[in-house]
Design goal:
The complex is a heterodimer of chains A (179) and B (301).
Chain A lengths: L1 H20 L11 H12 L4 H17 L7 H19 L5 H26 L11 H27 L19
Chain B lengths: L1 H29 L7 H64 L3 H11 L3 E9 L7 E4 L12 E4 L2 E9 L4 E5 L6 E6 L5 E6 L5 E6 L10 E4 L11 E8 L7 E8 L8 E5 L4 H7 L21
Antiparallel strand pairs in B: 1-2, 1-12, 2-5, 3-4, 3-12, 4-5, 6-7, 6-9, 7-8, 8-11, 9-10, 10-11
Classes of the chains: A mainly alpha (179), B alpha+beta (301).
């Protein structure tokens, strides 16, 4: 429960801080907090999968509210990103920074294309946009560079808020019989 | 057995969440521009103080550096500005004289009335968190009289349009967003066309080849047609006219008048255009519960 609340709060405040920073730094140079959080959730969430799915959707909804997209667009993509990260983490060893960076770069491109496709579907005149653009590659690199740190931070948070950490381990040692 | 049940439950949760997101998108598309529900509004209301808190120390440091640099040049700039002001005042007087002589003073007075829209200063506290969309969050909402469909400007020109409001915050779709489309006219030749957001911070002007007299350096202003933006708001300057790739339409690259990279203070025009009034206003006034009219995802001016 504590972990879920912590992630829900992070999912609420991280995009807000990102939005505030975007006034000073071009948005392409700022790591995508929501995507990184969702990937970290997919790779390291130790609790129930249903809760993680809800959290991923919540993070997407918050992003939708702070963005010019339709409400639900990021939520759907966030859900897919979470699923992808989860599936990939089952089949590959994602403990190293290079693999995490590769995954995040691929998901950045994938989510951008999906966003473009959804936008083109709902507002045809806007067009799919950003496929293959330099901005997309730059953003993928920025996200990839931030990924190992974000994932480590979220994992550290999970360990800190480990719901079993309060319990003491009972050790049973055989007594030596005196001769 | 339990494992199978768990898998089915997870699949159901996933489908329900994805379905919910899709339904939400469809509902939002139909009601674009309406006021946000209380819970979505609460997130926006919370975003304003959080983003201001983040921005305050950065603003402070940046302003200190800017002030120092500005002080160094302020005297020269002041002298230059005074000269410019004197020259503009002189020019203004001459123009007025010419117009009076032409018997068009009454029309000027009407135009002035048209432009006398109450303006509300607002601060841009955050920009779009998605790198692929261009919107901003301002610290004025319904309680300040801001509603969806109101144009947003600054001293440089047209900034965008309010698309969603909460109690204390509003979301503004910037002119450079890909979903933005404004009916524009070339100030020199009066050629009409549509200005759309392009990739990055630029705009694209689409105009009909037949009567399109557009050249690099031309200034584009809102045409006032379409009833979203008032007539005469500065949009930008044509930088390049592309070679004709269609028999009907041509495009021109436009540099926006507004420097979107340094957007801070904006003004919300507290009067909606007639089209926006028709689209968004209801008998009960603006309300989240009000029935949605026809979709207006991409209003044109």
């Amino acid at each position: 429960m504590k972990r879920a609340v912590a992630i829900a709060l992070l999912g609420l405040f991280a995009p807000m801080i990102q939005g505030a920073l975007a006034v000073f730094v071009p948005v392409g140079w700022i790591p995508d907090a929501a995507l990184l959080l969702v990937v970290a959730l997919g790779l390291g969430w130790p609790g129930s999968l249903a809760t993680a799915l809800l959290l991923a959707t919540w993070i997407g909804f918050v992003t939708d509210l702070l963005s010019g997209t339709l409400i639900g667009q990021h939520a759907l993509i966030s859900l897919c990103a979470f699923g992808s990260a989860r599936v990939v983490s089952v089949h590959f060893n994602l403990h190293g920074a290079p693999t995490q960076m590769t995954l995040v770069a691929a998901l950045t491109v994938g989510t951008a294309l999906a966003l473009g496709a959804l936008t083109a579907f709902f507002s045809p005149a806007a067009g799919p946009g950003y496929a293959g653009s330099f901005a997309l590659i730059r953003h993928a690199v920025v996200n990839a560079l931030a990924a190992p740190f974000a994932i480590a931070a979220v994992n550290a948070l999970f360990s800190r808020l480990d719901e079993d950490s309060g319990r003491r381990v009972l050790r049973l040692e055989p007594r030596r019989l005196s001769p | 057995m339990t494992d199978n049940r768990s898998r089915i439950a997870i699949a159901l949760v996933s489908v329900a969440l994805a379905g919910g997101a899709l339904v939400s998108m469809l509902v939002d598309r139909r009601s674009t521009g309406h006021e946000l529900s209380w819970w979505s509004g609460a997130v926006l209301d919370l975003a304003v103080p959080v983003q201001k808190m983040v921005a305050t120390p950065i603003d402070f440091a940046r302003d200190a550096v800017r002030d120092y640099v500005a002080v160094l040049d302020v005297r020269d700039e002041n002298t230059q500005l005074r000269k410019q002001l004197a020259s503009i005042e002189e020019e203004n007087l001459q123009l007025r004289e010419a117009l009076v002589a032409g018997g068009r003073l009454a029309r000027i007075a009407e135009m002035r009335d048209d432009f006398e829209v109450p303006m509300l200063p607002a601060e841009l506290v955050g920009l779009d968190v998605s790198a692929w969309f261009r919107s901003g969050l301002v610290d004025r909402g319904r309680q300040h009289g801001v509603f969806s469909g109101m144009p947003v400007i600054n001293e440089q020109g047209l900034v965008g349009l309010v698309t969603a409001t909460s109690r204390t915050a509003s979301k503004v779709m910037l002119l450079i967003d890909r979903q933005s489309a404004v009916d524009a006219v070339v100030q020199r030749s009066r050629s009409r066309g549509i200005v759309r957001g392009a990739h990055g911070d630029d705009l694209i002007f689409e105009f009909v080849v037949r009567d399109g007299d557009v050249q690099a350096g031309d200034v584009l202003v809102t045409s006032g047609l379409g009833g979203v933006y008032p007539k005469g708001l500065r949009i930008g300057e044509v930088t390049e006219v592309s070679a004709s790739d269609s028999k009907m339409l041509r495009t021109a690259a436009v540099r926006p008048a507004v420097d979107f990279g340094r957007l801070e203070q904006v003004f919300v025009m507290l009067r909606r255009g007639p089209t926006m009034e028709l689209l968004y206003a209801t008998d009960e006034g603006d309300s989240a519960d009000a029935p949605a009219p026809e979709p207006a995802a991409r209003p044109k001016s």
